[in-house]
Design goal:
Chain lengths: 113, 111
């Protein structure tokens, strides 16, 4: 079956631009996660949704980062006024329950110039 | 804050050799996950270890969990080039399972 998909796969933004990253989770998965992966590092948690409810946003690095999942399926991670330190791979993962294996998408590589 | 440490961070080994990757974590958790990541690709789930003493094996990889020592190992038997990748361990702390990842072990198996 279809896995987690993300778009775009690559995004180049000029500093100060706003970007929106999309995640399509596996159908029926209630849990959705966003992670940020810097080069050569492990993923770091950003935020978590259970259906449409954002239950944890403790990992969002600043108020420039905003995530939503309005209908409990597709999610969008928005970054306003991008900075060079935002350059990273943004991974989305979904899970069929509130705990257990997370299935990751291919990621969006964001480069801020 | 839960800390997860992996070692070694880099591992270069010859085909046919055995080696072990270690994953330590700082606070109590009863679940540990191992993932594989190929360059430019996403994370692929390898193992979920659900309890103390759990052991899982798939091909040349075997993972184990000691929750009392807060330690998991990923053992590689008779390595082959196809196992070259970065391996991550991750720990959660219960429901709403935010994962805490280690820094990864980059494995290079030389023919």
């Amino acid at each position: 079956g279809a896995g987690v998909s993300q778009s775009p796969r690559y995004k180049v933004a000029k500093r100060g631009q706003d970007v929106a990253l999309r995640c399509d989770p596996i159908s029926g998965h209630v849990s959705l996660f966003w992670y940020q992966q810097a080069l050569g590092q492990g993923p770091e948690f950003l935020t978590y949704f259970q259906n449409e409810a954002q239950l944890d946003k403790s990992g969002l690095p600043s108020d420039r980062f905003f995530a939503e999942r309005p209908e409990g399926s597709v999610s969008t991670l928005k970054i306003q006024r991008t900075q060079q330190e935002d350059s990273a791979v943004y991974l989305c993962a979904s899970s069929p329950s509130s705990r257990g294996t997370q299935y990751f998408g291919p990621g969006t590589r964001l480069t801020v110039l | 804050e839960l800390k997860v440490e992996q070692n070694p961070l880099f591992l270069s080994m010859q085909e046919g050799k055995n080696y072990t990757i270690y994953c330590n974590y700082s606070t109590t958790s009863d679940r540990l996950y191992w993932y594989r990541q190929d360059p430019g690709k996403s994370l692929e789930s390898l193992f979920v270890l659900l309890s103390n003493g759990a052991v899982k094996q798939e091909g040349r990889l075997m993972a184990s969990l000691d929750t009392k020592a807060r330690l998991s190992t990923l053992h590689i038997t008779a390595a082959v080039h196809d196992l070259s990748a970065t391996y991550f361990c991750a720990v959660d702390r219960g429901n709403f399972n935010k994962f805490y990842f280690g820094s990864g072990t980059k494995l290079n198996v030389k023919p």
